[in-house]
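Q: What changes when tetrahydrodeoxyuridine is included in the input?
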Amino acid sequence: MKALRLETRVELFEVGELDAVYKRLYEAAFEASRKAYAPYSKFHVGAAVLLENGEILSGNNQENAAYPSGLCAERTTLFYAGARYPDVPVRILAIAAMKDGERVDLITPCGACRQVMLETEQRYGQPMEVLLCGKEVAYLVPGAATLLPFCFGKSDLIR
Ligand code: THU
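A: The predicted holo structure follows.
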């Protein structure tokens, strides 16, 4: 028997330590969370992306009375970016959440969103950094694949 060890390297920052571009996305993600449509969970998630062309787009979770018909903030935003600029890579995705009007300590994305994040990264053939925004700290993940080890992706279907 052989064992395989998978390692994940994530950088942890105090919010005050973030470089300007990350701070901008941090604020944009929290700002976007304010406009979430989340009457059922009351968990307001926002996401912001920096595109290769310098543009920042944002989105949030959109819930539905038929629960599974709703969509997370990350997917809303990545699909929006893909729809607006299909040929422009996404460089950074920032995610933040608010509950009861307060910034949530830290948000980590659900499995379905990780799969879509992976697709975005593979679609453009370059890493998409992910900034997980907390109240006082932010975690910088170097690429979507880091969040989804042993993944099923594009190369399983297209070689
Ligand atoms: N949600 C997101 O938007 N992103 C996440 O990473 C986790 C969960 C949303 C889905 C649902 O509207 C609410 O948060 C509660 O699960």
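Observations recorded in class: Residues 38, 41, 43, 45, 61, 63, 70, 72-74, 107, 109-110, 113 surround tetrahydrodeoxyuridine (CB under 6 Å).
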